[in-house]
Amino acid sequence: EKAGFDHFMLKEIHEQPKAYRDTMMSRITEDGKSVELKELGMTAEFIKSIRKVHIVACGTAYHAGLVGKTVIESLVRIPVETDVASEYRYRSPIITPDTLVIVVSQSGETADTLAALREAQRNGARVLAITNVVGSSIAREADHVLITWAGLEIAVASTKAYTSQLVAFYLFGLHLAGTIGAQEASFIEEVITSMKQLPEQVESILEQSAVLKQVAESISHHKHLFFIGRGVDYAVAQEGSLKLKEISYIHSEAYAAGELKHGTLALIEDGIPVIALVTQEELYEKTLSNIKEVKARGAHVLGIANAGTEEEVAKSVDELFAIPKTLPLLSPALSVVPLQLISYYASLALEHDVDKPRNLAKSVTVE
Ligand code: M6R
């Protein structure tokens, strides 16, 4: 049932191109110009009435929600807040009838996320669920449902569910933008065209697994490491750090690159690995200067950059992994893949139980 792979996690990482196609293709019109989400049952009138969005989720789904915030804010220019569900439900969030609450959950059974959904509904908001399980508790109780067609995810460490959640946010953001008229039709078409290239682009990253295995093996000798980035790169850094902690038990922290000098830089010492995401062209010079800060303290830096800028970035880092070129908003759908593989191979090198890490369960149905 692992289809020739040693672990479910590796199989699921390799299923991402298919998960992308399955999640996106039926929702893109044949002419490739717009996104249609009739299944949501959300009227244009309701969409036009949304004044703010709250995204609520746990763990990896929360990290997808961090990217979702940037996607919706930049495509639609509506304010979005992203919270972890266990915080949201107890912080008396300001929920009004013109708030759309989006809960994100692979399993659709996470207790805190389900409680947040109920809290939102009690306050008069409508809830959209992005979930991978048709008929799950969250799918049943939400007012609107957008299914991620990632297929069954067995490994505790979520991979294809996360990337499918990103696709769901791209689709929903484009759907909102198209309905409200927040973006030029030509831009929407450009995003869709780039989205359609993602499956093949992921395949080309998977073909370079051997390099990432080597990186992971050298990382596995360390006790601590850092992930840094700005904008959506910071969101992906957080996901990369969680994945590594979860299955390799190596301590890591994700930091907004510009925040390092406000304290964390004190922890950078000779030889410490730093994984720097540098995919956002408008922030690229800034991140490069943060890379210089850690390099000056002896860090060993792996840069993850877009094809096209990789030669420039290579000058500032010790090692470089290039991801195929895409739009800045879509880069998380590619840049997370090398991080998933690094975590996988680090766990493998340390001989941990990759699919069933200690102390964790696939579905967290208790608070
Ligand atoms: O099923 P959910 O998406 O609601 O699960 C949320 C988290 O428990 C989950 O993403 C967890 O963080 C993963 N094990 C991370 O890989």
From TrEMBL:
Domain named SIS: residues: 43-182, 215-357
For whether the record's keyword set contains Ribonucleoprotein, the answer is no
Q: Which UniProt keywords apply?
A: Aminotransferase, Cytoplasm, Glutamine amidotransferase, Repeat, Transferase
Give the top-rank taxon of the lineage listed in the UniProt record for this protein.
Bacteria
Which cellular component appears as one GO term in the record?
cytosol
Q: Which reaction does it catalyse?
A: D-fructose 6-phosphate + L-glutamine = D-glucosamine 6-phosphate + L-glutamate
Q: What does this protein do?
A: Catalyzes the first step in hexosamine metabolism, converting fructose-6P into glucosamine-6P using glutamine as a nitrogen source.
- Official protein name in the record: Glutamine--fructose-6-phosphate aminotransferase [isomerizing]
Q: Which organism is it from?
A: Paenibacillus prosopidis
Please tell me where this chain falls within the complete protein, as first and last residue plus total length: 244 to 610 of 610
